[in-house]
Design goal:
single chain
Amino acid sequence: MDANTNSLNWFEIPAKDIKRAKKFYQAIFKMKMEEMEMMGMKMAFFPWAPGTGKANGGLCVSKMHKPSASSGVVVYLNADPDLKTVLGRVAKAGGKVVMPKTAIGENGFMAFFIDTEGNRMGLHSNK
């Protein structure tokens, strides 16, 4: 692996209802997601800038994508500059905080929430 590449290239967050999931993530991160259908999947993409080398991903509805709060990959989404702000929006948007903001030493802070689709997701921030 090139030293200048991210270890995370792409992520897919399973969803049952693309409109509901999109509304939730747009509400907690205060951003807009674009929708698309491709290869038999409904998808909504997190904002990204091609060519920057930054990882990206989206929400996916298909037979292969099954939301889960107890198994599977844990993705940590960036909640900088302050994780507390994003966590404060989770319940109002229809999710549930399952681990509050927790210090992880010099690596900042982390938390977990369950989204509207039933996925356990991680958050990370430096503050």
